[in-house]
Write a structure and sequence with these properties.
The structure is a homodimer.
Chain A (H helix, E strand, L loop, with lengths): L10 H12 L3 H12 L8 H4 L4 H14 L2 E6 L2 E6 L1 H20 L6
Antiparallel strand pairs in A: 1-2
Chain A binds a DNA duplex (30 and 30 nucleotides) through helix 4.
DNA sequence: AATCTTTATCGTAATATTGCAATCTGAAAA
DNA sequence: TTTTCAGATTGCAATATTACGATAAAGATT
């Protein structure tokens, strides 16, 4: 054991979980926030902005990329990373949906 | 190593990461979705709805509770869990903010 | 070509997560 | 009070994550 039993859940549940998991680390939140702030997404100085060693940052970038939250394109010698809007929209609308639902039953217990 | 270096990040970044991490498992997404669907939050049959053993479900509930996403109150013999709107709102507005920001700079690279 | 710069990958150690059987706790029912 | 029932906790095995030094890969610069 130790492995998540993904086969027992719906595709959508797994998809959202993958996205949420990828954001479940402060370094990766920091990366996303940095990518948002920077206009030109000439990245690579991400490493300089984070308090982590270069291989660690590279690994976090890989995880964000695997989850589909960012995409990178080769820019000469270096690499240009930026946020993938589609994935971000998926998360945004998921939570918006939950929130609307909660408002509706503006209830009750606990 | 192996432990997240939370001290290097802002409180807000850590907070969002904690919430996201708690949702980073399909079983916990399924729990949240079930709690949303059920009107009366008389819970406890969550175990029956999930393809996991009772101790495992109990652990997932604990993690959601620790993150602040759900709250539980003792209801006689059993326990009544439900979603904590405040935490959900925090996530919702965070992603909404990101999304607005991305729309604004409807740009450019990658 | 030799070197530099940028990013990825490998290997490894420390720690965390996932999952469950067994067991405990505490309230309700008998 | 004994039994029963709902949940939590413990203990453990399997696996995943986090972090980084060392090194590799590949384009840029000299």
């Amino acid at each position: 054991m130790g492995a998540t039993k993904t086969e027992h859940f719906t595709d959508k549940q797994n998809q959202i979980a993958i996205l949420a998991k990828a954001l479940g680390h402060p370094a990766r939140i920091a990366i996303i926030e940095y990518l948002m702030k920077v206009d030109t997404c000439i990245c690579g100085d991400i490493v300089d902005k984070l308090p982590l060693a270069q291989p660690t940052v590279s690994q976090h970038l890989k995880e964000l990329k695997n989850a589909g939250l960012i995409k990178g394109s080769i820019e000469g010698n270096s690499i240009c990373y930026c946020i993938d809007e589609k994935a971000m929209k998926k998360l945004q609308s998921y939570f918006a949906g939950i929130f609307v639902n909660l408002e509706k039953k503006k209830s009750n217990c606990c």
